Each structure stands twice: as structure tokens, then as C-alpha cells.
Amino acid sequence: MLSVKGLRANVGENEILTGLDLEVGPGEIHAIMGPNGSGKSTFSHVLSGREGYEVTAGSVTFEGQDLLALEPEERAHLGVFLAFQYPVELPGVNNTYFLKAALNSIRKARGESELDAVSFLRLIKEKLKILHLNDSLLKRAVNAGFSGGEKKRNEIFQMALLEPKLAILDETDSGLDIDALRVVADGVNALRSPERSMIVVTHYQRLLDYIEPDRVHVLAKGRIIRSGGKELALELEEKGYGWILEQEQAA
Amino acid sequence: MNGASPTSFDTWLSARADGEAGAGLDWLEAQRRSALDQVREQGVPGTKQEAWRYTSLKRLIEQGFARVEDEVTALQLQDIEELLIPGLDSHRVVMVNGRYTPSLSALGDLPRGVRVTGLRALLASDPDALRERLNGVTGESQPLFAALNMAGLDDGLVVLLDRGATLERPIELIHLSVGMDEPRVAQPRHLVSLADGAQATLIERYVSLGESLYCTNSVLELSLGRDAVLKHDRIQVESLNAFHITGLYLSQGAGSRYVGVNIGLGAAWARTDLVARFSGEHAECDLQGLYLAGDRQLMDYHIDVNHALPSCSSRETFKGILYGKGRAVFDGRVVVAKDAQKTDAAMSNKNLMLSENAEIDTKPQLEINADDVKCSHGTTVGQIEPEKLFYLRSRGISAPFARRMLCLGFAEEIIDALHSDALREAVSEEVGRRLETAPLT
Ligand SMILES: Nc1ncnc2c1ncn2[C@@H]1O[C@H](COP(=O)(O)OP(=O)(O)O)[C@@H](O)[C@H]1O
Ligand SMILES: [Mg+2]
Questions:
Q1: A168: CA distance to ligand 2 center in Å?
Q2: Which member of A92, A98, A162 has the closest CB to residue B410?
Q3: Which residues are paired to B116 by β-bridges?
Q4: Chain A residues inside the 8 Å CB shell of B412
Q5: How distant, in Å, are the alpha carbons of B42, B119, B186, B270, B391 from that of B6?
Q6: pLDDT digits (tens, 9 = 90+) for B300-345
């Protein structure tokens, strides 16, 4: 499904991704953990096509297509979705209008018919129910004045609505209290399916108590330095990142 | 035309074929003469004059506009149907090229104590009702374009509300300009007077059939009695070849409230002067605006609010979206006199620049001479933020559509302040439509 090979990327003069390899199969959930500043968000942004990063080497293939050659919206049309670490506030842009524009843009790009207002509202209601959310966020401007928890929930809601094939969740858990964390985790679990892969970026192993990953990777200094099963997350929780970094240096 | 470029406004005051409004009224003749003297005295102001510092009158005067000389009689209701706003339930007044046109108007039933009529007709039937009101707000000595308007006085809308009278539905003034075979100028003068406690909503729309070259120089004299409330939406979508000038003069009694929302989308060259004065305490004046300026367009706003009395508040909130080679000017001036304690004044002007070739001159000024006041002003000039654009695109929304959404989001605050859903929807659509074809370089 997703194949990342030897990916290197710069921000200005600095190389942030230094040869990153990752293979994600259909329906798999991969956790990426790593210390602050290791390049997790950079990786997420490069996958979703944000400007400001220069890819200098390597490749990213998504369902056989060269992802890096595509515009951000084209990636979304293919089914790539990023839940932002810091969701952007859009004052004056109504959330419902935004969701409808997003969904219909994707449907149109895929040659499907656009949803009319009634079918759209029906769909919204259905998704809210699955995620145990109420509709209070829909009437407001996108993320404007939302609390941290509300912003993260809104990201998950968008994911539920747009039904991506590859969802990248960039620290969706950070800054959340335990209740909000559960909402996010329940949402992710509800959306788990054999056709949907996820990359769950997290700084803490806490989230992985609720979302069980197929694979866990440690990202440090811009590349994956260790991969394993979910027990790797527990080991990291116990010992911190220090020991892996030391082993890595010794090697 | 004799080839040489005109150097005065004399052509604006050529004779009308169908006679002057209120002919034979001595007091009116005197006012016209006085206005004409003022026009001659002021000449054509150059950019050294503060009021015209950012905007040259050269382009305007070179057109050599001639006064509209007769009435357009051929228009029928079906010709203007496309100009009506679906779902807008109003007392409709249509003026064509500056002349009140009853056959296209639909005043409907007016409540007691409300008088809505044409200025020309009223000068014929009941001139005394106007004697104190013409120049009542501007004063006899007036700025150039108000004086020109007075010197060429022909027609306008008159709305008079008695004490406590209330209008449920808005009065909608459609100012329509239709194809004239040579460049002509219409100078309507509108008088709106609300007695104590009266309440009304006024919608003013400047529209055209076709993209012809013409000029509108309109003056509004608005007078609000004690505790009166006027809500006022102004939508300027003149032809993109037209010149548009508005002078809005507002006098507010104690405890009165005025909310004006100015939407400026059309005209090649548009100048709007908003002038507010208070004649009693605890009055509130809220001036809002949204302007778009693209290639070959100039949008020029001048605001002059004078707090001479204590405890009044004023808000000036203007937003602009500029693209292509569009130009805009925001020159806002709020003066708080020494005795005007407890004044609450806030002025803001925010601009979104979609291209590097667009140009804005923004100059908000507060002159505060009292010490116990709450005053603020702020101005921003910015671009669409890349992270907002990326957020939308990451959700599958194309870059042009995303840009339009962000622009509309920026404009939303002002569009939302309009006083009817039908109008909000129409304006939002029109803004979106213009942005769709907006050049971004
Ligand atoms: N836009 C940027 N400009 C400069 N440096 C950046 C930028 N984005 C990221 N970086 C740098 O790249 C490194 C990785 O950042 P990031 O990907 O945000 O890490 P993480 O998400 O793992 O905390 C950090 O050293 C950060 O300072
Ligand atoms: Mg990060």
C-alpha cells in the first residue's frame, strides 16, 4: 500500500529526514514513536504534500503511484489523510460547509456524484453517532476558538467522513486528557478496516493502550532506527529512548 | 467633444431637456446658486489636498461626463427582473439614471407615519417639507462633490418617518444605470429623516444593465432623532467601467443607533465618503465595509467621525480583498473633542492581498483630545496564509477553491452584518463569483 524508500528531506539547509524506510500493508496500523524533533511531523507533512520541504533522495509510492509528484489535493483524492498535530483555525469558514466541500471535492475527483444537502446531513449524522460526538462543532467556524480536545476530535471526525485509505495521525493524542484520548482512540478503532491503513505518530505509548498497532517503529534523527511488534512500545515506555539511541550509536 | 480634455465640472451641469426640479422655488434657486459658487471656487482639487492625497481626479474629469438629460421610459419590469434579489421582501423604489421611476417601483403598503417619495415629486407637491431638510445634514457649505450634487439637483429618494414610526420591511432603493450613448452623470440626492424613536431598514443598491461608462454622484443626508434606529445596507455593484461617488452625511441624535454596511464590488473608480456627527449623547454609530478591487479598479473610502459630545460610540470595521492590479484607499479619521469624555471608538482596516501588483493605502487616524475615553485602531495588510491553504488542500479541496473559501471566510464578518438573509446570500455569491475569475498576479 505505502512504500517509503531511502527518503531524505531538507528544510532550508538542514536535512531533517535522513534516509527513511517504511512499508505499510493494507489494513495495517503502524505506530511511529520518537523523541521531540526527530522528524515525525516532517515525515507526515512530506507524505501529505506540504510546501517548504525539499525531498533530496528516495521515493514514496502509494498504491503504485509516485506520491511525491502529486499536489496535496490529489493525494487526498487518492485517499491520503493527515490528522494535523496542530489543526489550523479558519475563522469565517463554516465547519459544515468545509466538510461538504472536502467530501464533494474528493467524490468529484473520483468520478462519483456530489452529495446534495440532505444526503450529506444524513451522512454527517451517521458519522457523529459512530464517534459518539454531538453536532455542536459543526455550526462553528473550522477549529476557530476550539479547545485542544475539540480540534483533535474534529480531525477524527473529518477522517471518519472522508474515509481515507491511508490515515496519518500526527500526535493526535498529545495534550488530551484521558476522556478525550478515549474518544480519539474509539474513533480510530471504529474506522479500522481491512482497506484502511494507519500511521499513528505518538510521543507516548499511552495511546497504544487503546489502539493496538501491528508494528511499532522508532524514528530518531530522521530515520527509522528500530522496528518491532507492540512489545517494543512497552519497552520504550519502560526504558525511554536513550538505550536505543545508544545502541544505534554503537552500531 | 472638441478634442481638448475638460478641466472643470461644467459639463456635469449642462441643462436638462425636461426642466429643473423645483423650478421657481426661490430658496432652492438660492441653494443651487450657492452650491455652484462653491463648485467654481473649489475647482478641481489636486493630490496636494489632504482629501485627495491618494486619489487623482484626473481620470474622472477627463471623461467629460454630461448631465443625464432626459428620462428613460422604455424599461419594463421584466427588463430589471434579473436585478431583483430572490426572497428579499421590501418596499422597492427604482431609480433609473438618477430619476425616480414609479412604473418599476413597488412601494406596497406603508405603515402610518411613513412617507416614501421622490424628491422631484415632493418639490412639486410639498416643497416646504424639504426646505429645512435639503442641506440639513451637510450644511449649506459642503465638500466638492456634495456641492456639485446640489448644483445639479434633480431627483432622489425621500424617506420621512414620524415620531415612533416603525418600518417592518426594508426600503430598498435600486439605483439603476442603463446604457447611455455618451458618458453621462446622474446625481441623486437622498434624504432620510427619522424622527424620535423611529426605526427603519434601508437597502441601497447601485446596479447597471450592461457594462457602460457613466458616473453616479450620489449624496445621502441621514438624520436620526433621539433613540431612532437606522439599519442601512449599501451594495455597490456598478458597471466595471463606471465611476461611482457617494457622500453619506449622518447626523445622530441622543441615544440613536446607526448600523451601516457598505459592500463595494463594482465600478472602475469608486469614492465613498462617510461623515458622521452626533447631536446628543449615548448615540452609537457602526460603520462596516467590505471592498473588492481587481484590475483597473480603485476603491477609495474616507471616513470622518467627529465625537464632539460625550458618551457616544463609533465603530469602523473595513475589510478589503485586492487582486490583480487592484487599488484601494482607506483613510479613516476619528476626532474626539476635549469635552467628549466616555467616548468609545474603535477603527480597524484589514486587507487581504491576493497579488503582488495590488496596492493599498491605509491610514486610520485617531485624534484624541479627551482623557477618559476608550479608543483603538488597527490595520493589517496580509496574504492568504499558506498553512490555511494547505489544510484545505490536504482535505481534497483544489487550490483555487480553497483560496476562495479563505477569502469568503475573511469577508464573512462583514457579509454577516448585512440585515437580511436574502442579501447575505446574494452578496456572498457575488463575492465568490468575482473571486472565481480574480487574477492572482
Ligand atoms: N519549518 C521548519 N523550519 C525549520 N526547521 C524545522 C521546520 N520544521 C521542522 N523543523 C526542524 O526539523 C526537526 C524535526 O521537526 P519535527 O518534524 O516537527 O519533529 P517531531 O514532530 O518529531 O517533533 C526539528 O529540529 C525542527 O526544528
Ligand atoms: Mg511533531
A1: 12
A2: A92
A3: B159
A4: 91-93, 141
A5: 16, 30, 18, 20, 54
A6: 999 999 999 999 999 999 999 999 999 999 999 999 999 999 999 9
Phi, psi (5° rounding) for residue A32? -115, 120
Q: What is the pTM of this model?
A: 0.94
CB of residue A41 inside a 6 A radius of ligand 1 = yes
pLDDT tens for B136-150 read: 999 999 999 999 999
Distance, in Å, from the CA atom of A123 to the CA atom of A244, rounded to the nearest integer, reads 46
> Which residue has better confidence, A203 or B93?
B93
Residue B116 CA to residue B122 CA, distance in Å, equals: 10
Ligand 1 pocket check for A17: Cβ under 6 Å: no
CA torsion sign, B34 to B36 to B41 to B47?
positive
Q: Work out the burial of residue B129: count CB atoms within 10 Å of its CB; fewer than 13 is exposed, 13-18 middle, 19 or more buried.
A: middle
CB contact under 8 A, B387 and A88: yes
Beta carbon pairs, A and B, within 8 Å: 81
Give the residue, by CA position, lying nearest to ligand 1 atom 13: A37
**CB within 8 Å of B74: residues ≥ 6 apart:** none
The CATH superfamily label for domain A2-90+165-250 reads P-loop containing nucleotide triphosphate hydrolases (3.40.50.300)
Task: Check whether A251 has a pLDDT greater than 80.
Answer: no
Q: What is the DSSP letter of A193?
A: B
In percent, how much of chain B has pLDDT > 90?
Answer: 92
Whether A162 and B396 lie within 8 Å, measured CB to CB = yes
B2-6: long-range contacts at Cβ-Cβ below 8 A with a sequence spacing of 24 or more? B5/B61, B5/B62, B5/B64, B6/B61, B6/B62, B6/B64
Q: Which of A152, A121, A145 is nearest to A135 (CA)?
A: A121
Determine which of A156-160, B18-22, B297-301, B427-431 has the lowest per-residue pLDDT on average.
B18-22
Per-residue pLDDT tens over the stretch A144-186:
999 988 999 999 999 999 999 999 999 998 888 888 888 888 8
| CA B176 to mean position of chain CA atoms | 14
How much is the pLDDT for B2? 47
Tell me which residue in A87, A101, A158 faces B401 most closely, judged by beta carbons.
A101
pLDDT at residue A48 tops 70: yes
CA dist., res. B224 & res. B231, Å (int): 11
Q: Whose CA is nearest to atom 6 of ligand 1?
A: A11
Predicted confidence band of residue B441 (pLDDT cuts 50, 70, 90): low
Chain B residue numbers with beta carbons less than 8 Å from the beta carbon of A162 are: 395-396
As a whole number of angstroms, the distance between CA B266 and CA A93 comes to 24
3-state SS assignment for residue B81: helix
Neighbouring residues of B76: CB distance < 8 A, sequence distance ≥ 6: B103, B104
Contact B409 A158 (CB under 8 A): no
Q: What is the mean pLDDT of residues A31-58?
A: 96
- Measured in Å, residue B375 CA sits from the centre of ligand 1 at 41
CA contacts within 13 A on the Cβ side of B131: 8
* Chain A residue with the nearest C-alpha to that of B406: A93
Q: What is the average pLDDT across A96-123?
A: 96
B10 pLDDT higher than 80: yes
